Amino acid sequence: MSSAHGQKIAFLGTGKIGEALLSGLLRAGKDPADVLITARRPERAAELAARYGVTAVSNTEAAKVADTLILAVKPQDMGTLLDELAPHIAADRLVVSAAAGIPTAWFEARLAAGTPVVRVMPNTPVLVDEGMSVISGGSHAQEEHLEWAEEIFRSVGKVLRLPESQQDAATALSGSGPAYFYFLVEAMTDAGILLGLPRQVAHDLIVQSAVGASVMLRDSGEHPVKLREAVTSPAGTTIAAIRELENHGVRAALLGALEAARDRSRELAGGGK
Ligand SMILES: NC(=O)C1=CN([C@@H]2O[C@H](COP(=O)(O)OP(=O)(O)OC[C@H]3O[C@@H](n4cnc5c(N)ncnc54)[C@H](OP(=O)(O)O)[C@@H]3O)[C@@H](O)[C@H]2O)C=CC1
Ligand SMILES: O=C(O)[C@@H]1CCC=N1
Protein backbone atom coordinates (compact mmCIF):
# COMPACT_ATOMS: atom_id res chain seq x y z
CA MET A 1 0.00 0.00 0.00
CA SER A 2 1.10 3.57 -0.58
CA SER A 3 2.11 5.89 2.21
CA ALA A 4 -0.07 8.69 0.81
CA HIS A 5 -1.51 10.31 3.88
CA GLY A 6 1.40 10.30 6.28
CA GLN A 7 3.51 7.41 7.24
CA LYS A 8 2.75 6.46 10.79
CA ILE A 9 -0.41 4.57 11.67
CA ALA A 10 -1.29 3.87 15.29
CA PHE A 11 -3.81 1.29 16.48
CA LEU A 12 -5.23 2.34 19.82
CA GLY A 13 -6.82 -0.80 21.17
CA THR A 14 -5.54 -4.04 19.72
CA GLY A 15 -8.11 -6.63 20.69
CA LYS A 16 -9.94 -8.81 18.18
CA ILE A 17 -10.63 -6.20 15.51
CA GLY A 18 -7.53 -4.08 16.18
CA GLU A 19 -5.22 -7.06 15.78
CA ALA A 20 -7.12 -8.29 12.70
CA LEU A 21 -6.70 -4.90 11.02
CA LEU A 22 -3.08 -4.62 12.10
CA SER A 23 -2.19 -8.03 10.66
CA GLY A 24 -4.02 -7.24 7.42
CA LEU A 25 -2.19 -3.97 6.93
CA LEU A 26 1.15 -5.70 7.38
CA ARG A 27 0.13 -8.44 4.93
CA ALA A 28 -0.70 -5.67 2.47
CA GLY A 29 2.87 -4.41 2.69
CA LYS A 30 2.78 -1.68 5.33
CA ASP A 31 6.23 -1.31 6.88
CA PRO A 32 6.05 -2.50 10.54
CA ALA A 33 8.47 0.31 11.43
CA ASP A 34 5.63 2.74 10.65
CA VAL A 35 3.05 1.01 12.82
CA LEU A 36 2.44 1.82 16.47
CA ILE A 37 0.13 -0.04 18.81
CA THR A 38 -1.35 0.40 22.25
CA ALA A 39 -3.40 -1.82 24.54
CA ARG A 40 -4.68 -1.43 28.07
CA ARG A 41 -2.51 -4.28 29.37
CA PRO A 42 1.19 -3.76 28.69
CA GLU A 43 1.74 -7.53 28.31
CA ARG A 44 -0.81 -7.65 25.47
CA ALA A 45 0.94 -4.80 23.63
CA ALA A 46 4.35 -6.40 24.19
CA GLU A 47 3.11 -9.75 22.86
CA LEU A 48 1.76 -8.14 19.67
CA ALA A 49 4.88 -6.02 19.20
CA ALA A 50 7.00 -9.17 19.34
CA ARG A 51 4.68 -11.11 17.00
CA TYR A 52 4.35 -8.43 14.31
CA GLY A 53 7.52 -6.38 14.67
CA VAL A 54 5.57 -3.18 15.38
CA THR A 55 6.23 -0.73 18.21
CA ALA A 56 4.22 -0.70 21.44
CA VAL A 57 3.81 2.83 22.80
CA SER A 58 1.63 4.71 25.28
CA ASN A 59 -1.62 6.26 24.10
CA THR A 60 -0.09 9.70 24.58
CA GLU A 61 2.98 8.83 22.52
CA ALA A 62 0.78 7.43 19.74
CA ALA A 63 -1.34 10.58 19.75
CA LYS A 64 1.73 12.77 19.40
CA VAL A 65 3.54 10.77 16.72
CA ALA A 66 0.99 9.06 14.46
CA ASP A 67 -0.42 10.66 11.33
CA THR A 68 -3.43 8.33 11.36
CA LEU A 69 -4.96 7.01 14.56
CA ILE A 70 -7.25 4.00 14.34
CA LEU A 71 -9.35 3.76 17.49
CA ALA A 72 -10.47 0.18 18.21
CA VAL A 73 -11.46 0.08 21.85
CA LYS A 74 -14.97 -0.84 23.01
CA PRO A 75 -17.49 1.98 22.76
CA GLN A 76 -17.69 1.88 26.58
CA ASP A 77 -13.93 2.64 26.80
CA MET A 78 -13.87 5.38 24.19
CA GLY A 79 -14.57 8.24 26.63
CA THR A 80 -11.57 7.39 28.82
CA LEU A 81 -9.37 6.95 25.75
CA LEU A 82 -10.41 10.28 24.23
CA ASP A 83 -9.80 12.11 27.51
CA GLU A 84 -6.24 10.81 27.38
CA LEU A 85 -5.63 11.37 23.67
CA ALA A 86 -7.40 14.59 22.77
CA PRO A 87 -4.91 17.11 24.20
CA HIS A 88 -2.10 15.53 22.14
CA ILE A 89 -3.70 15.10 18.70
CA ALA A 90 -2.86 17.93 16.29
CA ALA A 91 -5.75 19.03 14.09
CA ASP A 92 -3.98 17.88 10.90
CA ARG A 93 -4.04 14.21 11.98
CA LEU A 94 -6.67 11.76 10.82
CA VAL A 95 -8.75 9.98 13.46
CA VAL A 96 -10.49 6.79 12.34
CA SER A 97 -12.95 5.14 14.72
CA ALA A 98 -13.96 1.51 14.32
CA ALA A 99 -16.32 1.63 17.30
CA ALA A 100 -19.95 0.60 16.93
CA GLY A 101 -22.50 3.30 17.45
CA ILE A 102 -20.36 6.36 18.24
CA PRO A 103 -20.97 9.18 15.74
CA THR A 104 -18.19 11.30 14.24
CA ALA A 105 -19.71 14.36 15.95
CA TRP A 106 -18.98 12.78 19.36
CA PHE A 107 -15.27 12.66 18.47
CA GLU A 108 -15.28 16.11 16.87
CA ALA A 109 -16.66 17.59 20.08
CA ARG A 110 -13.67 16.18 22.01
CA LEU A 111 -10.86 16.83 19.52
CA ALA A 112 -9.13 20.04 18.43
CA ALA A 113 -11.38 22.11 16.16
CA GLY A 114 -11.22 20.94 12.56
CA THR A 115 -9.71 17.48 13.22
CA PRO A 116 -10.85 15.11 10.45
CA VAL A 117 -12.71 12.05 11.71
CA VAL A 118 -13.73 8.99 9.70
CA ARG A 119 -16.10 6.36 11.09
CA VAL A 120 -15.65 2.84 9.83
CA MET A 121 -17.44 -0.42 10.57
CA PRO A 122 -15.24 -3.35 9.54
CA ASN A 123 -15.87 -7.03 10.30
CA THR A 124 -13.66 -9.90 11.40
CA PRO A 125 -13.19 -11.46 7.92
CA VAL A 126 -10.55 -8.72 7.49
CA LEU A 127 -8.41 -11.49 9.02
CA VAL A 128 -8.59 -13.37 5.70
CA ASP A 129 -8.69 -10.26 3.46
CA GLU A 130 -12.45 -10.76 2.92
CA GLY A 131 -13.62 -7.95 5.17
CA MET A 132 -16.57 -5.66 4.55
CA SER A 133 -15.88 -2.16 5.81
CA VAL A 134 -18.39 0.67 5.69
CA ILE A 135 -16.93 4.17 5.82
CA SER A 136 -18.44 7.59 6.55
CA GLY A 137 -16.74 10.94 6.92
CA GLY A 138 -17.34 13.47 9.69
CA SER A 139 -17.83 17.17 9.04
CA HIS A 140 -14.10 17.93 8.68
CA ALA A 141 -13.15 14.85 6.66
CA GLN A 142 -12.08 15.80 3.15
CA GLU A 143 -12.02 13.56 0.10
CA GLU A 144 -8.31 12.80 0.68
CA HIS A 145 -9.06 11.54 4.20
CA LEU A 146 -11.85 9.26 2.98
CA GLU A 147 -9.65 7.96 0.18
CA TRP A 148 -6.83 7.24 2.62
CA ALA A 149 -9.17 5.42 5.00
CA GLU A 150 -10.57 3.48 2.03
CA GLU A 151 -7.08 2.49 0.98
CA ILE A 152 -6.30 1.18 4.46
CA PHE A 153 -9.46 -0.93 4.67
CA ARG A 154 -9.40 -2.01 1.00
CA SER A 155 -6.16 -3.80 1.78
CA VAL A 156 -8.20 -6.26 3.86
CA GLY A 157 -11.42 -6.59 1.86
CA LYS A 158 -14.21 -4.59 0.29
CA VAL A 159 -15.05 -1.02 1.26
CA LEU A 160 -18.31 0.86 0.82
CA ARG A 161 -18.80 4.54 1.51
CA LEU A 162 -22.22 5.30 3.02
CA PRO A 163 -23.89 8.30 4.67
CA GLU A 164 -23.27 8.20 8.41
CA SER A 165 -27.04 7.94 8.99
CA GLN A 166 -26.77 4.36 7.64
CA GLN A 167 -23.87 3.27 9.87
CA ASP A 168 -26.02 1.72 12.61
CA ALA A 169 -27.84 -0.37 9.99
CA ALA A 170 -24.55 -1.38 8.38
CA THR A 171 -23.24 -2.39 11.79
CA ALA A 172 -26.26 -4.68 12.21
CA LEU A 173 -25.74 -6.23 8.75
CA SER A 174 -22.03 -6.53 8.02
CA GLY A 175 -20.35 -5.60 11.31
CA SER A 176 -22.23 -8.28 13.25
CA GLY A 177 -23.07 -10.33 10.15
CA PRO A 178 -20.33 -12.96 10.41
CA ALA A 179 -21.68 -13.96 13.84
CA TYR A 180 -25.08 -14.84 12.36
CA PHE A 181 -23.48 -17.16 9.83
CA TYR A 182 -21.34 -18.84 12.52
CA PHE A 183 -24.50 -19.26 14.60
CA LEU A 184 -26.28 -20.94 11.67
CA VAL A 185 -23.31 -23.21 10.97
CA GLU A 186 -23.18 -24.20 14.64
CA ALA A 187 -26.92 -24.97 14.67
CA MET A 188 -26.79 -26.91 11.39
CA THR A 189 -23.82 -28.92 12.62
CA ASP A 190 -25.90 -29.90 15.65
CA ALA A 191 -28.66 -30.93 13.24
CA GLY A 192 -26.14 -33.21 11.56
CA ILE A 193 -25.44 -34.80 14.94
CA LEU A 194 -29.20 -35.29 15.40
CA LEU A 195 -29.25 -37.10 12.06
CA GLY A 196 -26.46 -39.39 13.24
CA LEU A 197 -23.39 -37.94 11.52
CA PRO A 198 -20.05 -37.64 13.31
CA ARG A 199 -19.47 -34.02 14.41
CA GLN A 200 -16.46 -33.48 12.18
CA VAL A 201 -18.30 -34.82 9.14
CA ALA A 202 -21.30 -32.60 9.88
CA HIS A 203 -18.99 -29.60 10.33
CA ASP A 204 -17.14 -30.23 7.06
CA LEU A 205 -20.36 -30.72 5.07
CA ILE A 206 -21.89 -27.52 6.36
CA VAL A 207 -18.77 -25.36 6.11
CA GLN A 208 -18.10 -26.33 2.48
CA SER A 209 -21.79 -25.79 1.66
CA ALA A 210 -21.52 -22.32 3.22
CA VAL A 211 -18.36 -21.53 1.25
CA GLY A 212 -19.89 -22.78 -2.02
CA ALA A 213 -23.14 -20.88 -1.45
CA SER A 214 -21.20 -17.69 -0.57
CA VAL A 215 -19.06 -17.83 -3.69
CA MET A 216 -22.16 -18.42 -5.85
CA LEU A 217 -23.94 -15.50 -4.19
CA ARG A 218 -20.96 -13.24 -4.79
CA ASP A 219 -19.92 -14.35 -8.26
CA SER A 220 -23.03 -15.54 -10.12
CA GLY A 221 -24.90 -12.25 -10.06
CA GLU A 222 -28.09 -14.24 -9.45
CA HIS A 223 -30.73 -13.23 -6.95
CA PRO A 224 -30.68 -15.43 -3.81
CA VAL A 225 -34.27 -16.53 -4.52
CA LYS A 226 -33.19 -17.92 -7.91
CA LEU A 227 -30.25 -19.74 -6.33
CA ARG A 228 -32.53 -21.22 -3.66
CA GLU A 229 -35.13 -22.25 -6.23
CA ALA A 230 -32.45 -24.16 -8.11
CA VAL A 231 -31.90 -26.27 -4.98
CA THR A 232 -35.61 -26.72 -4.23
CA SER A 233 -36.92 -29.71 -6.22
CA PRO A 234 -40.69 -30.33 -6.50
CA ALA A 235 -41.87 -32.55 -3.63
CA GLY A 236 -38.23 -32.84 -2.59
CA THR A 237 -36.13 -32.53 0.55
CA THR A 238 -35.37 -28.81 0.48
CA ILE A 239 -38.99 -27.66 0.43
CA ALA A 240 -39.68 -29.91 3.42
CA ALA A 241 -36.95 -28.04 5.32
CA ILE A 242 -38.08 -24.61 4.07
CA ARG A 243 -41.60 -25.29 5.36
CA GLU A 244 -40.15 -25.90 8.83
CA LEU A 245 -38.09 -22.68 8.65
CA GLU A 246 -41.18 -20.70 7.64
CA ASN A 247 -43.31 -22.43 10.32
CA HIS A 248 -40.81 -21.33 12.94
CA GLY A 249 -40.70 -17.75 11.71
CA VAL A 250 -37.00 -17.72 10.85
CA ARG A 251 -37.44 -14.86 8.37
CA ALA A 252 -39.29 -12.77 10.98
CA ALA A 253 -36.66 -13.70 13.57
CA LEU A 254 -33.92 -12.34 11.30
CA LEU A 255 -35.82 -9.11 10.71
CA GLY A 256 -36.20 -8.69 14.46
CA ALA A 257 -32.61 -9.69 15.19
CA LEU A 258 -31.06 -7.16 12.84
CA GLU A 259 -33.41 -4.46 14.08
CA ALA A 260 -32.24 -5.25 17.64
CA ALA A 261 -28.59 -4.98 16.55
CA ARG A 262 -29.30 -1.64 14.86
CA ASP A 263 -31.03 -0.37 18.01
CA ARG A 264 -28.13 -1.51 20.21
CA SER A 265 -25.72 0.36 17.94
CA ARG A 266 -27.83 3.48 18.43
CA GLU A 267 -27.73 2.97 22.21
CA LEU A 268 -23.92 2.92 22.08
CA ALA A 269 -23.89 6.40 20.52
CA GLY A 270 -22.70 8.11 23.68
CA GLY A 271 -20.17 5.44 24.64
CA GLY A 272 -22.91 3.21 26.05
CA LYS A 273 -23.10 0.85 28.99
N1 LIG B 1 -15.18 -7.66 17.06
C1 LIG B 1 -15.79 -7.28 15.94
O1 LIG B 1 -16.24 -8.10 15.12
C2 LIG B 1 -15.91 -5.82 15.63
C3 LIG B 1 -15.65 -4.85 16.55
N2 LIG B 1 -15.78 -3.53 16.22
C4 LIG B 1 -15.52 -2.48 17.20
O2 LIG B 1 -14.15 -2.56 17.54
C5 LIG B 1 -13.97 -2.16 18.88
C6 LIG B 1 -13.17 -3.21 19.61
O3 LIG B 1 -13.89 -4.43 19.62
P1 LIG B 1 -13.15 -5.82 19.88
O4 LIG B 1 -11.86 -5.82 19.17
O5 LIG B 1 -14.16 -6.86 19.61
O6 LIG B 1 -12.90 -5.68 21.47
P2 LIG B 1 -11.73 -6.29 22.36
O7 LIG B 1 -12.22 -6.26 23.75
O8 LIG B 1 -11.24 -7.57 21.76
O9 LIG B 1 -10.53 -5.23 22.19
C7 LIG B 1 -10.53 -4.00 22.83
C8 LIG B 1 -9.10 -3.55 22.96
O10 LIG B 1 -9.08 -2.24 23.51
C9 LIG B 1 -8.03 -2.19 24.46
N3 LIG B 1 -8.25 -1.05 25.33
C10 LIG B 1 -9.28 -0.79 26.18
N4 LIG B 1 -9.11 0.38 26.78
C11 LIG B 1 -7.96 0.90 26.30
C12 LIG B 1 -7.24 2.08 26.52
N5 LIG B 1 -7.68 3.02 27.38
N6 LIG B 1 -6.09 2.28 25.86
C13 LIG B 1 -5.64 1.37 24.97
N7 LIG B 1 -6.26 0.21 24.72
C14 LIG B 1 -7.41 -0.01 25.38
C15 LIG B 1 -8.03 -3.53 25.10
O11 LIG B 1 -6.80 -3.75 25.76
P3 LIG B 1 -6.60 -5.02 26.73
O12 LIG B 1 -6.69 -6.25 25.84
O13 LIG B 1 -5.22 -4.83 27.24
O14 LIG B 1 -7.70 -4.94 27.75
C16 LIG B 1 -8.22 -4.41 23.87
O15 LIG B 1 -6.97 -4.59 23.23
C17 LIG B 1 -15.36 -1.92 19.47
O16 LIG B 1 -15.61 -0.53 19.50
C18 LIG B 1 -16.30 -2.61 18.49
O17 LIG B 1 -17.53 -1.94 18.40
C19 LIG B 1 -16.09 -3.14 14.95
C20 LIG B 1 -16.35 -4.06 14.00
C21 LIG B 1 -16.33 -5.47 14.25
O1 LIG C 1 -20.87 -6.81 18.72
C1 LIG C 1 -20.39 -5.68 18.59
O2 LIG C 1 -20.80 -4.74 19.27
C2 LIG C 1 -19.29 -5.44 17.59
C3 LIG C 1 -19.67 -4.40 16.59
C4 LIG C 1 -19.95 -5.13 15.33
C5 LIG C 1 -19.45 -6.47 15.59
N1 LIG C 1 -19.06 -6.60 16.81
From TrEMBL:
Gene3D superfamilies: NAD(P)-binding Rossmann-like Domain, ProC C-terminal domain-like. It is an enzyme of class 1 (oxidoreductase). The keyword Cytoplasm applies. Keywords: Amino-acid biosynthesis, Cytoplasm, NADP, Oxidoreductase, Proline biosynthesis. InterPro entries: 6-PGluconate_DH-like_C_sf, NAD(P)-bd_dom_sf, P5C_Rdtase_cat_N, P5CR-like_CS, P5CR_dimer, Pyrroline-COOH_reductase. Residues 164-268 form the Pyrroline-5-carboxylate reductase dimerisation domain. SUPFAM superfamilies: 6-phosphogluconate dehydrogenase C-terminal domain-like, NAD(P)-binding Rossmann-fold domains. The keyword Repressor does not apply. Its EC number is 1.5.1.2. It is found in: Cytoplasm. Pathway: Amino-acid biosynthesis; L-proline biosynthesis; L-proline from L-glutamate 5-semialdehyde: step 1/1. It catalyses: L-proline + NAD(+) = (S)-1-pyrroline-5-carboxylate + NADH + 2 H(+); L-proline + NADP(+) = (S)-1-pyrroline-5-carboxylate + NADPH + 2 H(+). Residues 8-101 form the Pyrroline-5-carboxylate reductase catalytic N-terminal domain. Belongs to the pyrroline-5-carboxylate reductase family. Catalyzes the reduction of 1-pyrroline-5-carboxylate (PCA) to L-proline. This is Pyrroline-5-carboxylate reductase. The lineage of its organism: Bacteria, Bacillati, Actinomycetota, Actinomycetes, Kitasatosporales. The gene is proC.
